[in-house]
Protein backbone atom coordinates (compact mmCIF):
# COMPACT_ATOMS: atom_id res chain seq x y z
CA UNK A 1 0.00 0.00 0.00
CA UNK A 2 1.20 3.51 -0.67
CA UNK A 3 1.34 6.24 1.94
CA UNK A 4 -2.07 7.67 1.09
CA UNK A 5 -3.84 4.31 1.25
CA UNK A 6 -2.19 3.49 4.57
CA UNK A 7 -3.30 6.82 6.03
CA UNK A 8 -6.83 6.50 4.65
CA UNK A 9 -7.27 3.04 6.20
CA UNK A 10 -6.12 4.24 9.62
CA UNK A 11 -8.07 7.50 9.56
CA UNK A 12 -11.26 5.78 8.43
CA UNK A 13 -11.05 3.32 11.29
CA UNK A 14 -10.42 6.00 13.90
CA UNK A 15 -13.03 8.46 12.62
CA UNK A 16 -15.64 5.71 12.22
CA UNK A 17 -15.12 4.00 15.55
CA UNK A 18 -18.26 4.10 17.71
CA UNK A 19 -17.46 1.34 20.19
CA UNK A 20 -14.28 2.39 21.94
CA UNK A 21 -14.15 4.98 24.66
CA UNK A 22 -11.63 7.79 24.26
CA UNK A 23 -8.84 6.05 26.21
CA UNK A 24 -9.13 2.84 24.26
CA UNK A 25 -9.40 4.65 20.96
CA UNK A 26 -6.33 6.74 21.77
CA UNK A 27 -4.34 3.58 22.43
CA UNK A 28 -5.72 2.08 19.23
CA UNK A 29 -4.34 5.16 17.42
CA UNK A 30 -0.87 4.26 18.67
CA UNK A 31 -1.29 0.76 17.21
CA UNK A 32 -2.49 2.26 13.94
CA UNK A 33 0.58 4.47 13.94
CA UNK A 34 2.87 1.50 14.66
CA UNK A 35 1.26 -0.48 11.81
CA UNK A 36 1.76 2.53 9.56
CA UNK A 37 5.45 2.71 10.46
CA UNK A 38 5.88 -1.03 9.85
CA UNK A 39 4.18 -0.96 6.44
CA UNK A 40 5.34 2.44 5.18
CA UNK A 41 7.16 2.28 1.79
CA UNK A 42 9.76 4.95 2.82
CA UNK A 43 13.12 4.69 1.13
CA UNK A 44 15.01 6.31 3.99
CA UNK A 45 14.81 7.16 7.70
CA UNK A 46 14.16 10.85 7.18
CA UNK A 47 11.21 10.12 4.91
CA UNK A 48 9.80 7.63 7.44
CA UNK A 49 10.26 10.01 10.38
CA UNK A 50 8.55 12.86 8.50
CA UNK A 51 5.68 10.57 7.43
CA UNK A 52 5.10 9.26 10.95
CA UNK A 53 5.21 12.75 12.38
CA UNK A 54 2.65 14.15 9.93
CA UNK A 55 0.38 11.09 10.23
CA UNK A 56 0.46 11.39 14.04
CA UNK A 57 -0.76 14.98 13.72
CA UNK A 58 -3.45 13.91 11.24
CA UNK A 59 -4.70 11.14 13.54
CA UNK A 60 -4.65 13.61 16.42
CA UNK A 61 -7.23 15.75 14.63
CA UNK A 62 -9.53 12.84 13.72
CA UNK A 63 -11.65 12.94 16.88
CA UNK A 64 -11.83 16.52 18.16
CA UNK A 65 -14.12 15.64 21.12
CA UNK A 66 -11.55 13.16 22.46
CA UNK A 67 -8.58 14.91 24.01
CA UNK A 68 -6.58 11.73 24.76
CA UNK A 69 -6.32 10.92 21.05
CA UNK A 70 -4.29 14.05 20.48
CA UNK A 71 -2.59 13.88 23.86
CA UNK A 72 -1.28 10.33 23.46
CA UNK A 73 -0.06 11.07 19.95
CA UNK A 74 1.70 14.20 21.18
CA UNK A 75 3.23 12.22 24.02
CA UNK A 76 4.39 9.68 21.42
CA UNK A 77 6.06 12.44 19.39
CA UNK A 78 7.73 13.73 22.56
CA UNK A 79 9.01 10.26 23.42
CA UNK A 80 10.25 9.38 19.96
CA UNK A 81 14.09 9.30 20.01
CA UNK A 82 16.14 10.95 17.30
CA UNK A 83 16.03 8.54 14.36
CA UNK A 84 18.70 10.16 12.17
CA UNK A 85 21.63 7.88 11.58
CA UNK A 86 19.61 4.74 12.37
CA UNK A 87 18.93 2.01 9.85
CA UNK A 88 15.41 1.92 8.41
CA UNK A 89 14.67 -1.30 10.31
CA UNK A 90 15.91 0.12 13.60
CA UNK A 91 13.90 3.28 13.01
CA UNK A 92 10.71 1.25 12.49
CA UNK A 93 11.44 -0.72 15.67
CA UNK A 94 12.04 2.45 17.72
CA UNK A 95 8.76 3.96 16.47
CA UNK A 96 6.80 0.81 17.34
CA UNK A 97 8.51 0.71 20.72
CA UNK A 98 7.68 4.35 21.52
CA UNK A 99 4.05 3.78 20.57
CA UNK A 100 3.92 0.72 22.81
CA UNK A 101 5.49 2.58 25.72
CA UNK A 102 3.00 5.44 25.55
CA UNK A 103 0.10 2.96 25.30
CA UNK A 104 1.43 1.26 28.41
CA UNK A 105 1.60 4.59 30.27
CA UNK A 106 -2.03 5.20 29.32
CA UNK A 107 -3.09 1.75 30.45
CA UNK A 108 -1.29 2.11 33.77
CA UNK A 109 -2.95 5.49 34.32
CA UNK A 110 -6.38 3.94 33.69
CA UNK A 111 -5.57 1.16 36.15
CA UNK A 112 -4.63 3.69 38.79
CA UNK A 113 -7.83 5.63 38.12
CA UNK A 114 -9.88 2.47 38.59
CA UNK A 115 -8.05 1.71 41.85
CA UNK A 116 -8.84 5.17 43.24
CA UNK A 117 -12.37 4.95 41.85
CA UNK A 118 -13.06 1.63 43.56
CA UNK A 119 -11.79 3.00 46.87
CA UNK A 120 -14.04 6.04 46.46
CA UNK A 121 -17.17 4.02 45.67
CA UNK A 122 -16.68 1.44 48.40
CA UNK A 123 -18.71 -1.68 49.08
CA UNK A 124 -22.45 -2.28 48.73
CA UNK A 125 -23.31 0.83 46.73
CA UNK A 126 -25.58 1.34 43.74
CA UNK A 127 -23.69 3.12 40.95
CA UNK A 128 -25.49 4.73 38.01
CA UNK A 129 -23.47 5.35 34.86
CA UNK A 130 -24.05 6.37 31.26
CA UNK A 131 -22.58 5.06 28.03
CA UNK A 132 -19.69 2.59 28.08
CA UNK A 133 -16.50 3.66 29.83
CA UNK A 134 -13.76 1.05 30.12
CA UNK A 135 -12.57 2.87 33.25
CA UNK A 136 -15.98 2.69 34.92
CA UNK A 137 -16.13 -0.99 33.95
CA UNK A 138 -12.71 -1.48 35.57
CA UNK A 139 -13.98 0.21 38.77
CA UNK A 140 -17.08 -2.00 38.88
CA UNK A 141 -14.96 -5.06 38.14
CA UNK A 142 -12.80 -4.32 41.19
CA UNK A 143 -15.99 -4.12 43.28
CA UNK A 144 -17.69 -7.23 41.85
CA UNK A 145 -17.21 -9.17 45.07
CA UNK A 146 -18.23 -6.18 47.25
CA UNK A 147 -21.96 -6.28 46.48
CA UNK A 148 -21.84 -3.34 44.14
CA UNK A 149 -24.97 -2.83 42.03
CA UNK A 150 -25.08 -1.00 38.70
CA UNK A 151 -27.70 1.02 36.85
CA UNK A 152 -26.68 1.34 33.22
CA UNK A 153 -28.23 3.09 30.24
CA UNK A 154 -29.03 1.90 26.76
CA UNK A 155 -27.06 4.90 25.35
CA UNK A 156 -28.73 5.73 22.07
CA UNK A 157 -28.24 5.71 19.18
CA UNK A 158 -25.78 2.78 19.00
CA UNK A 159 -26.66 1.31 22.40
CA UNK A 160 -23.19 0.58 23.70
CA UNK A 161 -24.99 -0.07 27.00
CA UNK A 162 -25.59 -3.58 25.67
CA UNK A 163 -21.83 -4.27 25.70
CA UNK A 164 -21.61 -2.99 29.26
CA UNK A 165 -24.59 -5.17 30.24
CA UNK A 166 -22.80 -8.23 28.84
CA UNK A 167 -19.59 -7.42 30.69
CA UNK A 168 -21.40 -6.82 34.01
CA UNK A 169 -23.42 -9.99 33.54
CA UNK A 170 -20.21 -11.98 33.19
CA UNK A 171 -18.89 -10.30 36.33
CA UNK A 172 -22.13 -11.40 38.09
CA UNK A 173 -22.86 -7.81 39.12
CA UNK A 174 -26.57 -7.10 39.75
CA UNK A 175 -27.47 -4.62 37.04
CA UNK A 176 -30.53 -2.63 36.03
CA UNK A 177 -30.63 -1.71 32.36
CA UNK A 178 -32.67 1.41 31.54
CA UNK A 179 -33.50 3.60 28.57
CA UNK A 180 -31.74 6.99 28.60
CA UNK A 181 -35.11 8.61 29.33
CA UNK A 182 -35.29 6.83 32.72
CA UNK A 183 -32.07 8.45 34.00
CA UNK A 184 -34.07 10.85 36.18
CA UNK A 185 -36.09 8.08 37.83
CA UNK A 186 -33.06 5.91 38.57
CA UNK A 187 -30.58 8.60 39.66
CA UNK A 188 -32.86 9.13 42.65
CA UNK A 189 -32.62 5.40 43.46
CA UNK A 190 -28.80 5.25 43.22
CA UNK A 191 -26.07 6.15 45.70
CA UNK A 192 -23.75 7.89 43.26
CA UNK A 193 -23.13 8.57 39.58
CA UNK A 194 -19.82 7.54 38.00
CA UNK A 195 -18.93 8.19 34.37
CA UNK A 196 -15.91 8.26 32.13
CA UNK A 197 -15.02 11.20 29.92
CA UNK A 198 -13.77 11.79 26.44
CA UNK A 199 -12.05 15.00 27.52
CA UNK A 200 -11.74 17.09 30.66
CA UNK A 201 -11.57 20.75 29.68
CA UNK A 202 -9.42 23.51 31.13
CA UNK A 203 -12.44 24.91 32.97
CA UNK A 204 -13.12 21.52 34.60
CA UNK A 205 -16.04 20.63 32.31
CA UNK A 206 -16.28 17.07 31.02
CA UNK A 207 -17.00 16.14 27.41
CA UNK A 208 -18.69 12.75 27.26
CA UNK A 209 -21.40 10.86 25.37
CA UNK A 210 -24.64 12.86 25.00
CA UNK A 211 -26.84 12.23 28.03
CA UNK A 212 -24.01 12.54 30.56
CA UNK A 213 -25.01 16.15 31.29
CA UNK A 214 -28.58 14.97 31.96
CA UNK A 215 -27.27 12.40 34.43
CA UNK A 216 -25.24 15.13 36.15
CA UNK A 217 -28.33 17.36 36.42
CA UNK A 218 -30.39 14.48 37.79
CA UNK A 219 -27.64 13.55 40.27
CA UNK A 220 -27.47 17.09 41.61
CA UNK A 221 -31.26 17.25 41.89
CA UNK A 222 -31.32 13.89 43.68
CA UNK A 223 -28.51 14.95 46.02
CA UNK A 224 -26.10 12.18 45.02
CA UNK A 225 -22.47 12.81 44.04
CA UNK A 226 -21.40 12.82 40.41
CA UNK A 227 -17.86 11.58 39.76
CA UNK A 228 -15.86 11.62 36.52
CA UNK A 229 -13.14 8.99 36.02
CA UNK A 230 -10.48 10.61 33.92
CA UNK A 231 -6.76 9.97 33.63
CA UNK A 232 -4.65 13.04 32.98
CA UNK A 233 -4.15 12.11 29.32
CA UNK A 234 -7.73 13.28 28.88
CA UNK A 235 -7.05 16.80 30.11
CA UNK A 236 -7.46 19.38 27.37
CA UNK A 237 -5.88 22.83 27.38
CA UNK A 238 -8.97 24.58 26.02
CA UNK A 239 -12.34 25.50 27.55
CA UNK A 240 -15.92 24.66 26.60
CA UNK A 241 -16.26 27.57 24.17
CA UNK A 242 -13.51 26.05 21.99
CA UNK A 243 -15.16 22.63 21.77
CA UNK A 244 -16.79 21.46 18.57
CA UNK A 245 -19.23 18.73 19.57
CA UNK A 246 -18.91 15.98 16.95
CA UNK A 247 -22.11 15.19 15.10
CA UNK A 248 -22.37 11.77 13.49
CA UNK A 249 -24.47 10.65 10.55
CA UNK A 250 -28.23 10.87 11.05
CA UNK A 251 -28.58 7.35 9.68
CA UNK A 252 -27.46 6.00 13.06
CA UNK A 253 -30.75 7.27 14.50
CA UNK A 254 -33.48 5.10 13.02
CA UNK A 255 -36.05 7.59 11.78
CA UNK A 256 -37.80 8.02 8.45
CA UNK A 257 -36.79 10.83 6.10
CA UNK A 258 -39.56 13.41 6.21
CA UNK A 259 -39.84 16.85 4.62
CA UNK A 260 -39.11 19.66 7.12
CA UNK A 261 -37.70 17.16 9.66
CA UNK A 262 -33.96 17.04 10.28
CA UNK A 263 -32.62 14.12 12.30
CA UNK A 264 -29.81 15.26 14.60
CA UNK A 265 -27.09 13.07 16.08
CA UNK A 266 -24.87 15.22 18.29
CA UNK A 267 -22.70 12.61 19.95
CA UNK A 268 -21.35 14.42 22.97
CA UNK A 269 -22.45 16.92 25.54
CA UNK A 270 -20.56 19.05 28.04
CA UNK A 271 -21.06 18.70 31.78
CA UNK A 272 -19.93 21.89 33.49
CA UNK A 273 -17.56 21.66 36.46
CA UNK A 274 -20.24 23.00 38.84
CA UNK A 275 -22.14 19.69 38.38
CA UNK A 276 -19.07 17.50 38.97
CA UNK A 277 -18.39 16.53 42.58
CA UNK A 278 -14.87 15.29 41.93
CA UNK A 279 -12.62 13.93 39.21
CA UNK A 280 -10.87 10.62 39.78
CA UNK A 281 -7.39 10.75 38.21
CA UNK A 282 -4.40 8.43 38.50
CA UNK A 283 -3.17 10.74 41.26
CA UNK A 284 -6.32 10.32 43.36
CA UNK A 285 -9.70 11.94 43.87
CA UNK A 286 -9.63 15.65 43.02
CA UNK A 287 -12.70 17.65 44.12
CA UNK A 288 -13.69 20.27 41.56
CA UNK A 289 -13.36 23.91 42.55
CA UNK A 290 -17.10 24.06 43.19
CA UNK A 291 -16.88 21.28 45.77
CA UNK A 292 -13.50 22.02 47.30
CA UNK A 293 -13.77 23.18 50.91
CA UNK A 294 -12.73 26.84 50.89
CA UNK B 1 -70.43 -11.39 24.44
CA UNK B 2 -71.07 -11.72 28.14
CA UNK B 3 -70.31 -9.04 30.69
CA UNK B 4 -66.87 -10.43 31.55
CA UNK B 5 -65.73 -10.69 27.92
CA UNK B 6 -66.92 -7.14 27.20
CA UNK B 7 -65.02 -5.79 30.20
CA UNK B 8 -61.87 -7.77 29.39
CA UNK B 9 -61.81 -6.41 25.84
CA UNK B 10 -62.15 -2.82 26.99
CA UNK B 11 -59.69 -3.11 29.87
CA UNK B 12 -57.08 -4.83 27.69
CA UNK B 13 -57.26 -2.04 25.16
CA UNK B 14 -56.95 0.72 27.74
CA UNK B 15 -54.20 -0.94 29.79
CA UNK B 16 -52.24 -1.85 26.67
CA UNK B 17 -52.50 1.49 24.88
CA UNK B 18 -49.07 3.06 24.31
CA UNK B 19 -49.92 5.56 21.59
CA UNK B 20 -52.52 7.86 23.08
CA UNK B 21 -51.75 10.62 25.49
CA UNK B 22 -53.76 10.75 28.72
CA UNK B 23 -56.45 13.10 27.38
CA UNK B 24 -57.06 11.05 24.28
CA UNK B 25 -57.03 7.80 26.19
CA UNK B 26 -59.50 9.19 28.73
CA UNK B 27 -61.88 10.09 25.91
CA UNK B 28 -61.33 6.66 24.38
CA UNK B 29 -62.42 5.21 27.76
CA UNK B 30 -65.74 7.00 27.39
CA UNK B 31 -66.20 5.40 23.96
CA UNK B 32 -65.30 2.01 25.41
CA UNK B 33 -67.90 2.60 28.11
CA UNK B 34 -70.51 3.62 25.53
CA UNK B 35 -69.78 0.49 23.48
CA UNK B 36 -70.08 -1.56 26.65
CA UNK B 37 -73.51 -0.03 27.41
CA UNK B 38 -74.68 -0.68 23.84
CA UNK B 39 -73.58 -4.32 23.81
CA UNK B 40 -74.30 -5.29 27.40
CA UNK B 41 -76.65 -8.31 27.77
CA UNK B 42 -78.52 -6.78 30.76
CA UNK B 43 -82.14 -7.90 31.19
CA UNK B 44 -83.22 -4.69 32.92
CA UNK B 45 -82.28 -1.07 33.53
CA UNK B 46 -81.08 -1.58 37.09
CA UNK B 47 -78.69 -4.33 35.99
CA UNK B 48 -77.37 -2.14 33.15
CA UNK B 49 -76.89 0.89 35.41
CA UNK B 50 -75.04 -1.16 38.02
CA UNK B 51 -72.83 -2.77 35.35
CA UNK B 52 -71.93 0.57 33.75
CA UNK B 53 -71.17 2.08 37.13
CA UNK B 54 -68.86 -0.72 38.20
CA UNK B 55 -67.14 -0.90 34.80
CA UNK B 56 -66.53 2.86 34.89
CA UNK B 57 -64.77 2.45 38.23
CA UNK B 58 -62.76 -0.48 36.87
CA UNK B 59 -61.66 1.49 33.80
CA UNK B 60 -60.79 4.41 36.07
CA UNK B 61 -58.21 2.25 37.82
CA UNK B 62 -56.65 0.87 34.64
CA UNK B 63 -54.04 3.63 34.20
CA UNK B 64 -53.02 4.95 37.61
CA UNK B 65 -50.48 7.44 36.19
CA UNK B 66 -53.18 9.14 34.10
CA UNK B 67 -55.50 11.24 36.26
CA UNK B 68 -57.86 12.23 33.41
CA UNK B 69 -58.88 8.61 32.87
CA UNK B 70 -60.40 8.47 36.34
CA UNK B 71 -61.52 12.11 36.27
CA UNK B 72 -63.49 11.84 33.02
CA UNK B 73 -65.12 8.60 34.14
CA UNK B 74 -66.07 10.21 37.46
CA UNK B 75 -67.44 13.21 35.60
CA UNK B 76 -69.44 10.79 33.47
CA UNK B 77 -70.91 9.14 36.56
CA UNK B 78 -71.79 12.59 37.94
CA UNK B 79 -73.50 13.55 34.67
CA UNK B 80 -75.45 10.34 34.22
CA UNK B 81 -79.17 11.03 34.80
CA UNK B 82 -81.33 8.75 36.92
CA UNK B 83 -82.13 5.77 34.71
CA UNK B 84 -84.79 4.08 36.86
CA UNK B 85 -88.16 3.93 35.14
CA UNK B 86 -86.59 4.28 31.68
CA UNK B 87 -86.82 1.62 29.01
CA UNK B 88 -83.66 -0.39 28.41
CA UNK B 89 -83.22 1.26 25.00
CA UNK B 90 -83.60 4.77 26.42
CA UNK B 91 -81.19 3.93 29.23
CA UNK B 92 -78.53 2.82 26.73
CA UNK B 93 -79.07 6.01 24.74
CA UNK B 94 -78.75 8.23 27.83
CA UNK B 95 -75.53 6.49 28.85
CA UNK B 96 -74.02 6.91 25.37
CA UNK B 97 -75.15 10.53 25.36
CA UNK B 98 -73.57 11.29 28.74
CA UNK B 99 -70.29 9.72 27.63
CA UNK B 100 -70.34 11.82 24.47
CA UNK B 101 -71.03 15.01 26.41
CA UNK B 102 -68.16 14.49 28.80
CA UNK B 103 -65.81 13.66 25.90
CA UNK B 104 -66.88 16.92 24.26
CA UNK B 105 -66.17 18.88 27.46
CA UNK B 106 -62.69 17.34 27.51
CA UNK B 107 -62.08 18.16 23.86
CA UNK B 108 -63.20 21.76 24.34
CA UNK B 109 -60.90 22.10 27.33
CA UNK B 110 -57.95 20.84 25.27
CA UNK B 111 -58.80 23.33 22.53
CA UNK B 112 -58.83 26.17 25.03
CA UNK B 113 -55.49 25.01 26.44
CA UNK B 114 -53.98 25.02 22.96
CA UNK B 115 -55.34 28.51 22.33
CA UNK B 116 -53.74 29.85 25.51
CA UNK B 117 -50.58 27.87 24.78
CA UNK B 118 -50.19 29.34 21.31
CA UNK B 119 -50.63 32.86 22.68
CA UNK B 120 -47.99 32.14 25.32
CA UNK B 121 -45.44 30.76 22.85
CA UNK B 122 -45.91 33.47 20.23
CA UNK B 123 -44.37 33.67 16.77
CA UNK B 124 -40.90 32.67 15.59
CA UNK B 125 -39.85 30.63 18.60
CA UNK B 126 -38.06 27.31 18.90
CA UNK B 127 -40.06 24.95 21.13
CA UNK B 128 -38.53 21.79 22.58
CA UNK B 129 -40.92 19.05 23.69
CA UNK B 130 -40.78 15.42 24.82
CA UNK B 131 -42.98 12.48 23.95
CA UNK B 132 -46.21 12.97 22.00
CA UNK B 133 -48.82 15.28 23.50
CA UNK B 134 -51.89 15.97 21.39
CA UNK B 135 -52.20 19.30 23.20
CA UNK B 136 -48.64 20.35 22.34
CA UNK B 137 -49.31 19.27 18.75
CA UNK B 138 -52.44 21.46 18.76
CA UNK B 139 -50.37 24.42 20.02
CA UNK B 140 -47.73 23.93 17.32
CA UNK B 141 -50.45 23.48 14.71
CA UNK B 142 -51.90 26.89 15.64
CA UNK B 143 -48.42 28.39 15.17
CA UNK B 144 -47.57 26.61 11.91
CA UNK B 145 -47.82 29.81 9.90
CA UNK B 146 -45.94 31.85 12.53
CA UNK B 147 -42.47 30.45 11.85
CA UNK B 148 -42.46 28.24 14.92
CA UNK B 149 -39.68 25.63 15.02
CA UNK B 150 -39.82 22.38 16.95
CA UNK B 151 -37.24 20.14 18.61
CA UNK B 152 -38.79 16.76 19.31
CA UNK B 153 -37.48 13.61 20.95
CA UNK B 154 -37.49 10.01 19.84
CA UNK B 155 -39.12 9.05 23.19
CA UNK B 156 -37.90 5.53 23.90
CA UNK B 157 -38.87 2.77 24.12
CA UNK B 158 -41.79 2.95 21.69
CA UNK B 159 -40.64 6.11 19.89
CA UNK B 160 -43.92 7.99 19.69
CA UNK B 161 -41.73 10.89 18.57
CA UNK B 162 -41.99 9.38 15.09
CA UNK B 163 -45.74 10.06 15.03
CA UNK B 164 -45.13 13.64 16.14
CA UNK B 165 -42.47 14.02 13.42
CA UNK B 166 -44.97 12.88 10.80
CA UNK B 167 -47.63 15.30 12.03
CA UNK B 168 -45.20 18.25 12.13
CA UNK B 169 -43.87 17.35 8.69
CA UNK B 170 -47.41 17.52 7.31
CA UNK B 171 -47.86 20.89 9.01
CA UNK B 172 -44.62 22.02 7.29
CA UNK B 173 -43.09 23.00 10.63
CA UNK B 174 -39.28 22.98 10.68
CA UNK B 175 -38.41 20.23 13.10
CA UNK B 176 -35.27 18.75 14.58
CA UNK B 177 -35.64 15.13 15.69
CA UNK B 178 -33.25 14.05 18.45
CA UNK B 179 -32.55 11.05 20.65
CA UNK B 180 -33.65 11.46 24.27
CA UNK B 181 -29.97 11.64 25.25
CA UNK B 182 -29.54 14.89 23.28
CA UNK B 183 -32.16 16.77 25.36
CA UNK B 184 -29.44 18.63 27.24
CA UNK B 185 -27.69 19.83 24.09
CA UNK B 186 -30.88 21.02 22.43
CA UNK B 187 -32.63 22.59 25.43
CA UNK B 188 -29.84 25.17 25.40
CA UNK B 189 -30.58 25.88 21.72
CA UNK B 190 -34.36 26.33 22.24
CA UNK B 191 -36.42 29.29 23.45
CA UNK B 192 -38.78 27.34 25.68
CA UNK B 193 -39.87 23.85 26.66
CA UNK B 194 -43.53 22.84 26.30
CA UNK B 195 -44.88 19.45 27.29
CA UNK B 196 -48.19 17.76 28.00
CA UNK B 197 -48.91 15.83 31.17
CA UNK B 198 -50.61 12.64 32.15
CA UNK B 199 -51.52 14.09 35.55
CA UNK B 200 -50.91 17.27 37.48
CA UNK B 201 -50.60 16.44 41.17
CA UNK B 202 -51.96 18.33 44.16
CA UNK B 203 -48.47 19.65 44.92
CA UNK B 204 -48.15 21.03 41.38
CA UNK B 205 -45.84 18.26 40.14
CA UNK B 206 -46.45 16.84 36.67
CA UNK B 207 -46.54 13.13 35.84
CA UNK B 208 -45.53 12.60 32.22
CA UNK B 209 -43.55 10.23 30.00
CA UNK B 210 -40.12 9.33 31.44
CA UNK B 211 -37.59 11.92 30.27
CA UNK B 212 -39.85 14.92 30.93
CA UNK B 213 -38.12 15.53 34.26
CA UNK B 214 -34.74 15.54 32.46
CA UNK B 215 -36.05 18.14 30.02
CA UNK B 216 -37.26 20.26 32.94
CA UNK B 217 -33.82 20.04 34.61
CA UNK B 218 -32.09 20.95 31.34
CA UNK B 219 -34.51 23.85 30.76
CA UNK B 220 -33.82 25.28 34.19
CA UNK B 221 -30.08 24.90 33.70
CA UNK B 222 -30.30 26.57 30.28
CA UNK B 223 -32.44 29.40 31.67
CA UNK B 224 -35.42 28.75 29.41
CA UNK B 225 -39.02 28.47 30.71
CA UNK B 226 -40.66 25.06 31.10
CA UNK B 227 -44.42 25.03 30.52
CA UNK B 228 -46.91 22.20 31.06
CA UNK B 229 -50.09 22.10 28.96
CA UNK B 230 -52.75 20.55 31.12
CA UNK B 231 -56.52 20.89 31.14
CA UNK B 232 -58.13 20.71 34.57
CA UNK B 233 -59.41 17.17 33.95
CA UNK B 234 -55.80 16.14 34.52
CA UNK B 235 -55.60 17.58 38.00
CA UNK B 236 -55.23 14.86 40.64
CA UNK B 237 -56.15 15.26 44.30
CA UNK B 238 -53.06 13.42 45.57
CA UNK B 239 -49.38 14.35 45.83
CA UNK B 240 -46.22 12.76 44.44
CA UNK B 241 -45.79 10.39 47.40
CA UNK B 242 -49.06 8.68 46.50
CA UNK B 243 -48.13 8.08 42.86
CA UNK B 244 -47.28 4.61 41.60
CA UNK B 245 -45.23 5.10 38.44
CA UNK B 246 -46.48 2.51 35.95
CA UNK B 247 -43.83 0.09 34.73
CA UNK B 248 -44.46 -1.62 31.41
CA UNK B 249 -43.11 -4.92 30.12
CA UNK B 250 -39.34 -5.08 29.69
CA UNK B 251 -39.85 -6.58 26.23
CA UNK B 252 -40.61 -3.08 24.91
CA UNK B 253 -36.94 -2.22 25.52
CA UNK B 254 -34.91 -4.20 23.01
CA UNK B 255 -32.20 -5.83 25.11
CA UNK B 256 -30.99 -9.39 25.42
CA UNK B 257 -31.89 -11.46 28.46
CA UNK B 258 -28.74 -11.79 30.53
CA UNK B 259 -28.12 -13.31 33.96
CA UNK B 260 -27.91 -10.65 36.70
CA UNK B 261 -29.28 -7.97 34.34
CA UNK B 262 -32.82 -6.70 34.83
CA UNK B 263 -34.30 -4.54 32.06
CA UNK B 264 -36.45 -1.76 33.52
CA UNK B 265 -39.21 0.12 31.74
CA UNK B 266 -40.61 2.76 34.11
CA UNK B 267 -42.90 4.70 31.81
CA UNK B 268 -43.38 7.95 33.66
CA UNK B 269 -41.44 10.35 35.78
CA UNK B 270 -42.46 13.20 38.06
CA UNK B 271 -41.41 16.79 37.42
CA UNK B 272 -41.66 18.76 40.66
CA UNK B 273 -43.50 22.09 40.66
CA UNK B 274 -40.26 23.98 41.38
CA UNK B 275 -39.08 23.11 37.84
CA UNK B 276 -42.34 24.19 36.17
CA UNK B 277 -42.55 27.83 35.13
CA UNK B 278 -46.31 27.80 34.55
CA UNK B 279 -49.20 25.47 33.74
CA UNK B 280 -51.39 26.24 30.75
CA UNK B 281 -54.98 25.31 31.55
CA UNK B 282 -58.26 26.05 29.76
CA UNK B 283 -58.58 29.04 32.09
CA UNK B 284 -55.25 30.55 31.03
CA UNK B 285 -51.59 30.49 32.02
CA UNK B 286 -51.13 29.78 35.72
CA UNK B 287 -47.61 30.38 37.11
CA UNK B 288 -46.62 27.75 39.66
CA UNK B 289 -46.13 28.85 43.25
CA UNK B 290 -42.35 28.82 42.71
CA UNK B 291 -42.64 31.33 39.85
CA UNK B 292 -45.52 33.46 41.11
CA UNK B 293 -44.43 36.99 42.05
CA UNK B 294 -44.85 37.22 45.82
How would you characterize the overall build of this protein?
Two copies of one chain form a homodimer. By secondary structure, the first copy, chain A, is of the alpha/beta class. Chain A is about 45% helix and about 15% strand. Chain A has nine helices and eleven strands. In chain A, strand 10 (about 280) and strand 11 form a beta hairpin. At the A-B interface, helix 7, strand 3, helix 8, helix 9 and strand 8 of A face helix 7, strand 3, helix 8, helix 9 and strand 8 of B.
Overall pLDDT level of chain A: 95
In whole angstroms, how far apart are the ends of chain A? 59 Å
The helix-and-strand class of chain A reads alpha/beta
Pattern of helices and strands of chain A = HHHHHEHEHEHEEEHEEEEE
What percentage of amino acids of chain A are in beta strands?
5-15%
Instruction: State the low-pLDDT regions of chain A, or none.
Output: none
Q: Tell me the strand order in the biggest sheet of chain A.
A: 3-2-1-4-7-10-11
Helix fraction bin of chain A: 40-55%
- How many strands, what sense, and barrel or not for the largest sheet of chain A? 7 strands, mixed
Q: So what's the oligomer here?
A: homodimer
- Using only CA atoms, what is the Rg of chain A? 20 Å
Chain pair forming the biggest interface: A-B, 46 and 47 residues
Number of helices of chain A: 9
Number of strands of chain A: 11
Label the overall shape of chain A.
Answer: globular
